[in-house]
Amino acid sequence: MPPGTVEEKVYPTDIEPEVALKFLASIPTDWSASITKLILKDKINTYAYSKHIAERLVERAWNNLPVSIVRPGGITSAMTEPLPGWNETQSSSSKWAKLIFCGAYHTVLGNKQGRFELTPVDYAVNTCLAAAWRLGTATPKTFHVYNCVPNRKSNPIMLRDLINWGCETTRESLSVKKHENYYPLISNNTNIFDVNNYLFRKIPGQFWTLLKKGSYPNFQKDYNEAQLIAKTFKAVTTENWEFETSNMAELNQLMDPLDKALFPIDFDQIDWKLFIEYLACGLHKHSQN
């Protein structure tokens, strides 16, 4: 669906999930790419489409199974559990953040006045546990969807802050290869993103790696991956999505003080600058590259 308000509900699909799955399973593999645009229509990408289909399947199972849906944003490092900054560094969101913080982009594709819906991994897990607890103890049982993201009004995380704080931590606190005092520009124009990164990232990078005799193929691979990941996140970084979070707030209110302390889900309690410091340090510490 186009950018706008995302309510805590399951949205209808153009085709019934079972029909879609049966059709996709029946077509030859080499047809997939040619009909993708026809199938997606206004959907962001195949990942978002598959999530939408999955939500409809879960909702339809409500008559036979006690289920809820937890809908996180971009899952990143842990805030507290199992330890601050812990993350699985091979995920697309972790790679994207690390590329930004370490200087892989001259220009970041995004809206510099926009938000970025981050979800610490332990908050996603805690919300799943709390949702299951509510479902198991409530009478009568009710189907809920939880937008597990920051409240856009009370404690949003701004994209420009994420970039600046992450770059600041990487450049000042970590002993990694970096460009001192360099912070990427931000533009939501794809052409500017492509041209700036080509002129000020790819060409100098090619020249430098050729001087190092033979390392160019690795640079080309890394550059292409950086460009692909940035465009994958375009719909998230260049548009402002208005996520409703009333079900999340209600779930948090139902928890007693001890449970809130042990299984925090209240995004209003997150110090985002501290979290981004954890994220940047965790990407460096737990990196598999």
UniProtKB/TrEMBL annotation:
Q: What is its EC number?
A: 1.2.1.84
Please provide the record's keywords in A-Z order.
Lipid biosynthesis, Lipid metabolism, NADP, Oxidoreductase
Catalytic reaction list: a long-chain fatty acyl-CoA + 2 NADPH + 2 H(+) = a long-chain primary fatty alcohol + 2 NADP(+) + CoA
Top-level EC class as recorded in UniProt: oxidoreductase
Provide the protein name: Fatty acyl-CoA reductase
According to its UniProt entry, what is the function of this protein? Catalyzes the reduction of fatty acyl-CoA to fatty alcohols.
Gene Ontology terms: cellular component: peroxisome
Domain (Thioester reductase (TE)): residue spans on this chain: 6-127
The similarity annotation says: Belongs to the fatty acyl-CoA reductase family.
InterPro entries, A to Z: FAR, FAR_C, FAR_NAD-bd
Annotated ranges, domain Fatty acyl-CoA reductase C-terminal: 213-286
Q: Name one GO molecular function term.
A: alcohol-forming long-chain fatty acyl-CoA reductase activity
- Any one biological process term the GO annotation gives: long-chain fatty-acyl-CoA metabolic process
Q: Which Pfam families match?
A: NAD_binding_4, Sterile
